[in-house]
Amino acid sequence: MSAAAPPAVRSCRPFVKAPARRRCPAVRCSLAGDVVTAGRILKELKSGCATPLPVLRRVADAMADDMRAGLASDHSGSELKMILSYVDVLPTGNEKGLFYALDLGGTNFRVLRVQLGGKDNRVIDTEFEQVSIPRELMFGTSEELFDFIASGLARFVESESGIFHLPPERKREIGFTFSFPVNQTSIDSGILMKWTKGFAVSGTAGKDVVACLNEAMERQGLDMRVSALVNDTVGTLAGARYWDDDVMVAVILGTGTNACYIEQTDAIPKLQSLASGSGRTIINTEWGAFSDGLPLTEFDYDMDNESINPGEQIFEKTISGMYLGEIVRRVLLKMSKFSALFGNSVPEKLSTPFVLRTPDLCAMHQDDSRDLYEVGMRLGGIVGTTSSTLEARKVALEVIDTIVQRGGRLAGAGIVGILQKLEQDSRGLVFGKRTVVAMDGGLYENYPQYRNYLKGAVTELLGPELSKNVIIEHTKDGSGIGAALLAAVNSKYID
């Protein structure tokens, strides 16, 4: 990979600016003192972020224990909510017909249609369109937002032609991917708990978001019904499972992170009264909230304390794309203040929260040139270092590698924790056969070192023989197709 043209980590966006920290007084040291001070900070960082095998095992075991506690009761105190998706029938490949998907998870929404042809033809064709949501609608009323979405969906339906066709006397059905906190009550209903990601829409909290969309479609004269409500992780699993029956787990690693998996209903004590006919369902772990046993440093604690949600989403803040660059920035800032890492003054931009993003880390991490030219250019352009020595660039690269290595290896331990739980509760029926983990998200897709550290941790934890059966596969943009497939699986027209 060329250092001059690094892959962009598309799912990484600047974070809401955190409150400015009190500036520490500059400490001027001799050159010898500078090297020792920067080296000491780096040594302490590596020690605090270390993920040897015993630490990985502790994290994997704690993840499995927390999963069981979350499945036992909503009041168990588990950090993992283990949310029931109400998806208890998965795509088989037999699905036929025209189905739509709507993906709302940020400042854009995406609409998609897919023509399914059953076992012989599978996906005959797909089309999609992405629409930007005007900023004023993010702060408007519920009716205004859903009317805008429904009108965009109606225009998309009007362009339906060619290979896409709806059988006579059938209503169009749609899978709705809604990536905001929802208390789901059935496969086609869910109550919005709160808006996130910069939305502050009035009149929606406490309401069924499917009802809001259905009502808006009716106002637009659009003859369509929502037959499945899912989050993006669940959609990813369903989409991957359609092509591969061995998919058991889906993980998203991008700006944020989450994981879901297929669970046997008899292993869910809190849901025994809602046992499904198939005997299994998808569980949304919401694993970003996990924190037990994680190796954390002063930089992690400071970032968390100054975040908009202190004490929450600690796993996400350690492994996901939104935060890796910010942790690195905080380390470099301390080094710059207490040594002459970048000269005798602290670069002004280096004090700006979230100025250093994960795509910048990725670009610098690919630099294998003798003089680390790309590292120097990025540091100069992003954090405003007027000059950097080769030694300073090497230190910056070591800081990046330390934080990215910890993130990737902890993500791998989390995956093994899920697999361990399944293996133990199914009496050895997981590791003895091919088991696929479907991965999506820009961080996993575009950051090769992160990806390699993740896979390395899985192999290290499981050992060379068992790890051969665990296949980690990239599933690009699978949640849209997955939502359409779940609409098909839950169609009211199924014979």
UniProtKB/TrEMBL annotation:
GO BP terms, alphabetized: glucose metabolic process; glycolytic process; intracellular glucose homeostasis
Catalytic activity: a D-hexose + ATP = a D-hexose 6-phosphate + ADP + H(+); D-glucose + ATP = D-glucose 6-phosphate + ADP + H(+); D-fructose + ATP = D-fructose 6-phosphate + ADP + H(+)
Membrane-crossing segments per the record: none
Protein name from the UniProt record: Phosphotransferase
InterPro entries documented for this protein: ATPase_NBD (IPR043129), Hexokinase (IPR001312), Hexokinase_BS (IPR019807), Hexokinase_C (IPR022673), Hexokinase_N (IPR022672)
Keyword presence, Transferase: yes
Domain Hexokinase C-terminal as annotated: residue spans: 249-489
Xref: CDD domains: ASKHA_NBD_HK_plant
Pathway this chain belongs to: Carbohydrate metabolism; hexose metabolism; Carbohydrate degradation; glycolysis; D-glyceraldehyde 3-phosphate and glycerone phosphate from D-glucose: step 1/4
EC number: 2.7.1.-
Any one Gene Ontology cellular component term annotated for this protein: mitochondrion
Domain Hexokinase N-terminal: 42-242
UniProt key word Transferase: yes
GO molecular function: ATP binding; D-glucose binding; fructokinase activity; glucokinase activity
SUPFAM superfamilies: Actin-like ATPase domain
Keywords from the UniProt entry: ATP-binding, Glycolysis, Kinase, Nucleotide-binding, Transferase
